[in-house]
Structure formats: C-alpha cells, structure tokens
Amino acid sequence: xNTTSVNEQAPSSSSPPSSSSSSSSPEPQRARPLRxxxxxxxxxxxPLRHTDGPTYNHPVCTLQLRSFSVRNVEFMADFxxxxxxxxxxxAKGPVPLPxxxxxxxxxxxxxxxxxxxxxxxxxxxxxxxQIQDGHTxxxxxxLAYLRRYAFWGVGMKANVWExxxxxxxxxxxxxxxYRIVSCSRFCLHTDRSCLCRxxxxxxxxxxxxxxxxxxxxFLLRLQT
Length: 224
Known about the structure:
The protein is of the alpha+beta class. It has two domains: about 50-160, CATH 3.30.70.600; about 170-224, no CATH class. It is about 40% helix and about 20% strand. The chain has six helices and four strands, in the order ααβαββαβαα. The protein has helices at about 20-25, 40, 70-85, 135-150, 170-185, 195-224, and strands at about 60-65, 90-105, 115-130, 155-160. The chain has a four-stranded antiparallel β-sheet with strand order 2-3-1-4. α5 packs across α6 (about 195-224). Mean pLDDT is about 75; it is low at about 1-15 and about 190-195.
C-alpha cells in the first residue's frame, strides 16, 4: 500500500539548489588596462614620415648632428625627425656617418722616462638628416625650433639651399643700388673715406666715363 504523502515528496527541479546561492553573488570587476594618450604612445614608436604628395627629391636642407655620446645624438635625431613631421616636412634619415677618431699621445715624464707615455682618444659620432621639397620659411622655423630646444652635448651644422626665379638677379641689383643711394644720402659720416660714399662716387665716375665715351663716339661719327 502506497502511504507516501505530498509533504514527504522529493524537492522538484524548479527549486534552486543550495549551491546556487554562492553563484548568485556579484563577481568583482576586472580592472581595465591603463591606456596612455596617443601622443604619449607615439613616443615609444618610430617617428612618422610624410610619404604622400608630389616628390621632386630636391634637397632643401641637410642637418648634421655631432656628439660624443650615442644616447645624446640618437635622442636629438629622433626629436628632429618628429619636429619635421609635425611641420609637414619630408625628412630622410637619420643616416649614420663615419666616426671621427682623434688620438693624442702625451708624455708623462721627460728625459730618461720618455717611454712612459699616455694615449687619449676622442670619438665623434655623427647623424645626417635631409629635408626635401620643403619651403624655405618652414625650414628656417624648423631649424630655429631645434636651436631653441637643443639637447645638451649635441652640436648641429645645417646647409640650406634656396631656389629663386629668373628675375632674382635684377632684384638683387636694384636692391644693391637702393642701399648705396640711401646710405650715401642719409649717412652721417663726414670722413671722405666712408665706404658708401666711395662706392657712390665710383659708380658716378663709371657712368660719367661711359657718357663721355659715348658722346665722343657720336661726334666722331658726325665728322666722318
């Protein structure tokens, strides 16, 4: 005879097990990894370069960096490349140049102890950066920025090339004449040996000599 009551039945599957109480507790959130700004992340990567746009491969400036320390010259070269990128200059390099090795031998004692000598050596490290297809004014700004924030122990030597039009010679000549005339008019020197006055008088003498020679040639043609 079945005497099992309703209250004594096994718990149904709908009731949660005893172990579910521990799983329902909130899990601790994982800490997100710290993300640096893009400007800070870029300092750990190689400097960016401009590759788009027309390329004429015309050298505008060559910058040579010199130092006795590898760390200093590499840091300054990296700084110069990043500054050129943000100024939209097309830069190539840095190219390692041959080392300059200098040695000296100094006597530590004289007379009979001449064989006791001491040697000194100095090694200069160099890097070369070339700017191509850049505007002259932008290159000057780049060089001025590098001079202002130059790294200690690093020397810089720059060669700049400028390209002008065909009428540049006439502009230089007119500017030269204007400076001579203005200096001769407003010069406060009373000495006759003043350079501006001597140049002005020399120019006047040349013009007068040519005028006289032309007038004499014209009179000779009339006589013949």
